[in-house]
Amino acid sequence: MKRNLITLFFLAFICFEVKSQTALTGSQAYDNAQNLRAKARKFYDKDNPTKADCDSGLAILNTAVNFLDKPEVIELAQDNLYLKGRKSDVYYDMILCYALSKQYDKALDIFDKMGNEGNYYRIDFYETDSLFIPMRSNPRFQSALSRLKLRQALWKDESLKTPYKENISDAEKTAGLSLLWSQAKYNFVNFDHAAIDWDKTYLDYLPLVKNTTSTAQYYKVLQQFYAQLKDGHTNVYVPKELSAEFYTRPPFRTELIEGRVFVTQVFSDSLKTLGITPGTEVLSIDDIPVITYGKTHVAPYQSSSTPQDLDVRTYTYALLAGPATKTLHLQLRSSTGKTWQQDIARTGYHDVKNALPSLEYKRIGQIGYLTVNNFEDEKIMKQFDSLFTQIAATKGLIIDIRNNGGGSSGIGYHIISSLTNKPFKGSYSKVLRYMPTIAGIQWHENMPGEWDANGKQYYDKPVVVLISARTFSAAEDFTVAFDYMKRGQLIGQTTGGSTGQPFGFSLPGGGSARVCGKHDAYPNGKEFVGVGIAPNVVITKTIKDLWKGTDAALEKALQLLNK
């Protein structure tokens, strides 16, 4: 009877596959593979599964492998990285299933097969999880694991992951710069935008790193080196031991407005008592005119994709950052023209209020006003769904992502799925495919993914999205999808112009870095990385509006939606 049940399940899934082949897309193929994995887990992912349970799961997983091995699915996977990665997931599930049912030889067969296909996914798990203890003494397992670890070591660079010291060795410094150079040379996708001779840049920086006398100096040079690539998703991060020296800043924010620098947000009442309030102008830092200070002390170390992104990083995010032990000497001017000098500590404040919440919602008359300040917290999706009944009762909706620096694109797409009753497209993307035999590269294109409408909730009223130069990364993915489906107006300023899929790696001395390995564009190929997404209605922030407390972009959105 159990064998008949397995056969029935197998036939049911085969029928599902055949049906799904009609005009099959990469997203549908991905969903099919994931659905098969989920169905298989119902058999073996429980306490003490029997061999029959595991065999039932394995029958489904074999169906998934057969599906993924179909020529048409293999072809689709060439343009869909998510689909391409499902084969390794299925192999992992199969190894797990065989190990649970103590069929270790068969588990090793799949392990070998996975290695022969060039995949070293989750090899640390095979080496550490107690489930695989009976396999570890097997010479086949040891040989395959050793081969996979050597292959993984080419990209994980564990040998170069040396600990922090106040001044690491010259060999470590050279190795770190060389690693940054090579990772970018073979994986960075935006060299056309950077428009530099990368090998010459590497040669220029070799003496600079050798001349540093501390690890802190060394990392400043590395940050400047990667800033030459002009990409907001390609950065160098200092060791944790240097975080307080590089990143400490007082609890207020500044912004470049009409060529001058102003305080725009203050998170400490004790600073307000010193006269530092929104609208206060910063004239100089440590006796250096503020614009000059930004251009010479801050901008050269900022990895940025566009001029507007560089301005945000220079005059908002990093302007006041520096050693926790060093006081800032500021010259300030109030909105009434009073000028004074003030020494400001970067740390030691005990009355700091929380910065921007992830999500806020309120109603302004008949218009809903939804502010989403990041796409990092998955709770945002549940919060949005819990608010939907209130949102649905409005006659128009404003979505404010002007301070949204990104996170997970899926969170943004979850919101968009409730603004339409049709499938919508995400970004088109491409990655590099290196061809060593011809000493060159080719582009590997990934067609735009298609996302389904929510189906349970649908907001069909007018929608406006507010954007700015601080709209970045996954928030730009959201903007692309919203703009491409022509769901509503974009109001504000051009976005930061940087998204993609970076991969990280360790550096000597305890730091790390990342390189952008995926180039995104609109579904129709329109570029926005290195450019930014322009609004339909441009609203330039002015000093006058800041002093009056006027939000001109929000007012324009309300005006349009109240018509």
Automatic annotation (TrEMBL):
One of its GO terms (molecular function) is endopeptidase activity. Transmembrane segments: none annotated. GO terms for biological process: proteolysis; signal transduction. InterPro entries: ClpP/crotonase-like_dom_sf, Tail-specific_protease, Tricorn_C1. SUPFAM superfamilies: ClpP/crotonase (SSF52096). Residues 325-540 form the Tail specific protease domain. GO terms for cellular component: outer membrane-bounded periplasmic space. This is Tail specific protease domain-containing protein.
